[in-house]
Write a structure and sequence with these properties.
By secondary structure, the protein is an alpha+beta fold.
C-alpha cells in the first residue's frame, strides 16, 4: 500500500533541502585558535567585512589577539618595541600597555607596563584601540585638531614635558607648573629653583628639572600629578639641557660646554666630557641611545661612546647654531638657527675603521620652510614637529620631507615643544603653554536637538545620541526605551518595534558615513562603532664670537644667578 505524504513529511523534506543547500561554514568548524591564525592574515578592512557574515564569524573577528597583531603590524608604537603577548595571555589594551611603549627605548631594562600612562582611562579592547589610532593618525596627517591655552607663568616658558594626563613646564621666573591636560586646571606650582628652569624630562614616574642655578632636581610624580622632591644633582655650571630614559641614566649639558652621564639610582656621575673637544661652547642639546651620546655645540654635533666616554666623531651639517637634537630610532634629528632641520641616518663604521666602535652619520633629509631660526623639535612616528622664532610650529612627514601643516597661535618665539601619541604641547616667549590635541573623532557626536525639533532626527541619529552616552552595548529594546523616555523623536513616529530600529541602523551602516554595525545577529541586537569606517580614514658659555639668538636665550641673566 502506497503511503501518502503528510504535512509533517513535507516540512521535513523542506528542512532537509534547506540544510543541503546551506553552504558549509569551514571557518566556524575550526578550533578558535586555528581560525584566528587564518584570520590573522587579513587586513583590518577585510577583517571588518568578514565580521558581518554571521554571529560566529563576528565573535572570531573581534578576538583581541587579532587586533593586537594588526596594531603591531601598523607600527602604532612609533619605532619602539611593542609589548609581546601570546593569545592565551592577552590582557586588555590598558593605557600602560598601549601608550607607554611609545616613549620607551627599545633597549630599556624596564617593562612597558612600568612606564607612566599617556592617556589614563578605562580598559578598552584592542579593536577599539586600533580604531582610535586610525582616527588619530588621520588627524595628524590632515591637521585636524583642537587647541587649548594654559596660563600661569609670569615669564618666558623655557621647557615643557608631557607626563600622562599632565603637562609640566618651567619658566625663566624659576617656576615649575603642573597642569592637567584634560581640564586645563593647574595642579601644582613649584618655585624651589633659584634661577630659570631651562630643561625638564621624565622617566617613568621620575621627573628631572634642570636650572641655571647649577642643579638638577629629581621629583617623584604621584597619581594626582603632584611632584615631591626626591634628590638633586649638583653641577659646576648652569644647566642648559638634559635627557633621561627608562634605563637608569641621565645625560646633562651645561653652559660651560660639558656633558655629564649620571647613574640615577646612585646619584653619581659616571663620566664628564667636553661637549665640543675643539671649542669651549655651551651644550645646547643632548640625547643618547644604547651605545652613543649625542651633543650639539655651535654648529657641530659631537658623538661619544656611552660606555667609555671616548670621543668618536664630530660632524657639521648646519650653517647656524644647533638648537635642538633628538634620537628617533635609527635616526638623529637636529634643528638650527639656519632655519633648517636635518634627519640623519645613524650607522656603524666598517670593522676595518680606525675606531672599531665608531658611528657614521649621513644626511637623510634637510627640511626648510620656517621664516626664522628653528628653536626646538620633537617627533612622533613618521612625524617631526619643529618650533621656531617665527612664532609657529610645523609638522613634517619624515618619509616625504613635506610640511603637512603649520600650527599658529603663539605670540612669541616658540622655545620648547613635546608630543605624545595624540598631542603636541609648546611653550613660548608669550608666557603661555598651548596644547594641540589630535585625538578628537573625525565625526563630531550629535547634539540633542532643542525641544520641538525632535522630529528632524532619524532613528539612527537618535540611537547614536543614546549610544554615545552609554557605558556598554545596548539591546534594541533598551535603545528604543531610552529614546522614548528622553523623547528624542516626535510622537508621530509612534512605537517602532526593535526589528525596525535594527533595519534603520543597518541601512545607515551601509552609507559612506557608517557609524554602526550589527555585532550580534541573534536577539538582542547590539551595536558598536564600525571598524571599517575608521579604517577608511587612514590615508593609505659662550665663545668670543657674537652670541646667537639661542645661546643668548640659554645664558642666565645676571640677576638670576
Amino acid at each position: 500500500m502506497k503511503r501518502t505524504r503528510t504535512d509533517s513529511d513535507s516540512h521535513l523534506h523542506s528542512a532537509k533541502q534547506a540544510h543541503a543547500a546551506r553552504p558549509f561554514d569551514l571557518l566556524s568548524s575550526l578550533p578558535p585558535e586555528l581560525a584566528c591564525s587564518v584570520l590573522k592574515l587579513l587586513d583590518a578592512q577585510t577583517l571588518s567585512m568578514a565580521s558581518r557574515v554571521s554571529h560566529s564569524w563576528r565573535c572570531l573577528c573581534l578576538d583581541d589577539w587579532l587586533w593586537y597583531a594588526l596594531a603591531v603590524r601598523a607600527r602604532f608604537w612609533y619605532g619602539q618595541q611593542p609589548p609581546a603577548f601570546s593569545r592565551e595571555q592577552m590582557p586588555p589594551a590598558t593605557p600602560a600597555i598601549t601608550t607607554a611603549s611609545q616613549h620607551t627605548d627599545p633597549n630599556s631594562r624596564s617593562s612597558p607596563s612600568s612606564s607612566r600612562n599617556d592617556n589614563p582611562g578605562p580598559d578598552v579592547t584592542w579593536h577599539q584601540f586600533y580604531c582610535s589610532q586610525i582616527v588619530v593618525n588621520h588627524n595628524w596627517s590632515t591637521g585636524r585638531h583642537t587647541s587649548t591655552t594654559l596660563s600661569g607663568h609670569m615669564d618666558v616658558v623655557l621647557s615643557i614635558k608631557i607626563s600622562g594626563d599632565y603637562v609640566i613646564s618651567g619658566s625663566r621666573s624659576c617656576r615649575i607648573l603642573v597642569a592637567r591636560i584634560s581640564t586645563g586646571e593647574t595642579v601644582q606650582t613649584i618655585e624651589t629653583h633659584n634661577a630659570g628652569v631651562s630643561c625638564i624630562d621624565t622617566a617613568g614616574c621620575t621627573v628631572f628639572s634642570g636650572s641655571w642655578d647649577k642643579t638638577v632636581k629629581m621629583w617623584t610624580q604621584s597619581s594626582d600629578g603632584t611632584l615631591q622632591q626626591c634628590g638633586d644633582l649638583a653641577h659646576s655650571d648652569a644647566l642648559i639641557c638634559l635627557r633621561s630614559k627608562d634605563d637608569g641614566f641621565l645625560v646633562t649639558g651645561t653652559l660651560a660646554g660639558t656633558v655629564h652621564l649620571w647613574d640615577v639610582a646612585s646619584s653619581t656621575c659616571v663620566f664628564q666630557v667636553s661637549g665640543s673637544p675643539h671649542e669651549a661652547e655651551l651644550v645646547s642639546s643632548v640625547d643618547y641611545n644604547a651605545d652613543h651620546i649625542f651633543s650639539g655645540s655651535g654648529s657641530h654635533v659631537s658623538i661619544w661612546c656611552k660606555k667609555s666616554g671616548q670621543f668618536l666623531m664630530q660632524t657639521t651639517g648646519h650653517t647656524g647654531s644647533v638648537t635642538g637634537l633628538h634620537v628617533h630610532g635609527r635616526f638623529l634629528l637636529t634643528c638650527s638657527e639656519d632655519k633648517t632641520a636635518i634627519v640623519w641616518t645613524v650607522g656603524r663604521q666598517p670593522a676595518s675603521s680606525a675606531i672599531a666602535s665608531g658611528v657614521d652619520l649621513s644626511v637623510q633629509l634637510s627640511l626648510g620652510g620656517h621664516r626664522e631660526g628653528i628653536r626646538c623639535l620633537t617627533s612622533r612616528g613618521k612625524y617631526l614637529v619643529t618650533g621656531a622664532y617665527d612664532q609657529t610650529l610645523r609638522v613634517w612627514d619624515m618619509e616625504t620631507g613635506h610640511c603637512l601643516h603649520v600650527l599658529s597661535g603663539h605670540g612669541g618665539d616658540v622655545n620648547t615643544v613635546d608630543c605624545d601619541g595624540s598631542r603636541i604641547v609648546s611653550g613660548s616667549d608669550d608666557k603661555l603653554v598651548k596644547i594641540w590635541d589630535f585625538s578628537q573623532p573625525d565625526r563630531q557626536p550629535l547634539a540633542v536637538p532643542p525641544s520641538g525639533q525632535q522630529g528632524r532626527l532619524s532613528w539612527a541619529d537618535a540611537a547614536e545620541i543614546v549610544l554615545s552616552q552609554a557605558a556598554e552595548p545596548m539591546s534594541c529594546d533598551a535603545i528604543f526605551s531610552e529614546i522614548s523616555k528622553r523623547q528624542l523623536l516626535h510622537a508621530r513616529f509612534g512605537r517602532t518595534p526593535s526589528h525596525s530600529l535594527n533595519a534603520s541602523l543597518h541601512a545607515n551602516s551601509k552609507t559612506s558615513n557608517a557609524r554602526f554595525v550589527c555585532i550580534d545577529t541573534a536577539t538582542p541586537h547590539k551595536f558598536m562603532l564600525s571598524p571599517s569606517w575608521a579604517s577608511r580614514q587612514l590615508l593609505s658659555r659662550p665663545s668670543s664670537r657674537p652670541q646667537s639668538r639661542a645661546s643668548s636665550r640659554a645664558t642666565p641673566a645676571p640677576s638670576m644667578t
